[in-house]
């Protein structure tokens, strides 16, 4: 998802995409996803959905909602 609207601006320039189609069920894969995410607020995980991280639950929920809207638009 590239930043193309106001909702996507929270994820500028884009949300990293973990392209491995396997379910993330091991520490090794989870570490790979987190490594790709880095300091980004979110990462899209192929087949699994998205992971959002923030300093508070309210901020994480807001980012998750914004990511959903950015993807929808």
How is this structure best summarized?
The protein has helices at residues 27-37, 57-72; strands at residues 17-18, 42-45, 49-52.
Secondary-structure topology with pairs:
Elements lengths: L16 E2 L8 H11 L4 E4 L3 E4 L4 H16 L1
What coarse outline follows from CA principal-axis ratios?
globular
Radius of gyration: 12 Å
- Strand numbers in spatial order across the main sheet: 1-2-3
Q: How many runs of DSSP E, i.e. beta strands?
A: 3
Q: How large is the count of helical segments?
A: 2
Distance between the termini: 10 Å
Give a quick account of the main beta sheet: strands, pairing sense, barrel closure: 3 strands, mixed
Mean residue pLDDT: 92
Briefly note the structural class of the backbone: alpha+beta
Q: What is the helix/strand order?
A: EHEEH
- Content of β-strand: 5-15%
Helix content: 25-40%
The oligomeric state is single chain
Contiguous uncertain segments of 5+ residues: none
Describe this protein's structure:
By secondary structure, this protein is an alpha+beta fold. The protein contains two helices and three strands. Strands 1-2-3 form a three-stranded mixed β-sheet, with helices on both faces. The mean pLDDT is 92.
List the defining traits of the structure above.
single chain; 73 residues; alpha+beta; 3-stranded mixed beta sheet; 3 strands
């Amino acid at each position: 998802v590239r930043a193309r609207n106001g909702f996507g601006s929270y994820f500028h320039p884009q949300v990293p995409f973990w392209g491995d189609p396997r379910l993330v069920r091991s520490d090794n894969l989870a570490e790979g996803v987190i490594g790709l995410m880095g300091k980004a607020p979110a990462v899209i995980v192929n087949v699994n959905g998205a992971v959002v991280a923030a300093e508070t639950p309210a901020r994480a929920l807001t980012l998750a909602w914004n990511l959903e809207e950015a993807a929808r638009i």
